[in-house]
């Protein structure tokens, strides 16, 4: 099932399999039992993994088991299906960044005015995920020859998108528009942020580490770069923006069948 999947797909799959083998051994599928699933759960819990991480690992192991059992015609009940998992265990809540702190961060970005601060500013008023912004191409940023500056967010060979809804058009306003102009002005590469693309791979983890370390001094505890995304949703709620427009701007998955009909809201309406 690896067609059109990124590096994360392979890493997560191999990690889940490694956890299983390290916990209960490498056996023929038909020899795995419910007790093995319980042992895996205990081992992962004792490692201190959050509930959401344990759920993801079990989902991967369960999917592999089911897929291979069907493909090979094995008469085997999936022992990893239906086991109780506490999704909320030790899950830390990502807090939105308060408005006054966003203004302070943006002010610092304008003052320092380098590519890293442009990346922070770009995220602050678009709500993009870090990987989405860090993996932009110069051509994705549309400022000239348009009445409404915007980003055409699309997948690239060096950075895929999380979901189908993630591919979208995002209007540029405020600090994000400033950042986009600076990126275009200083751009001498295919990539908007060349320091974070190497060997046709977007270095999202590297970007996250350095930017969150800097951001920590200017935002409350419990906030991170991803908190801008939470803040954007709150800010749009505050002005009475319809949830369907919010979902379209942020690339959140549509909640109803009806939302998938038609072309969606125009760039003008979103702007």
In short:
The protein is mainly alpha-helical.
Please characterize this protein's 3D structure.
With 271 residues, this protein is mainly alpha-helical. It contains eleven helices and five strands. The strands form two sheets. The chain has a three-stranded antiparallel β-sheet. A hairpin with a 2-residue loop joins β4 and β5. α1 crosses α2. The chain is elongated. The two termini are 38 Å apart. The relative contact order is 0.12. The model has no long low-confidence stretch (mean pLDDT 91).
Largest sheet: 3 strands, antiparallel
* Number of DSSP-assigned strands: 5
- Portion in helices: 40-55%
By DSSP (H or I, 4+ residues per run), the number of helices equals 11
Question: Which class of secondary structure composition applies to the elements?
Answer: mainly alpha
* Mean pLDDT level: 91
Terminus-to-terminus distance: 38 Å
Low-confidence stretches at least 5 residues in length (pLDDT < 50)? none
Strand adjacency order, main sheet: 1-2-3
What is the overall shape? elongated
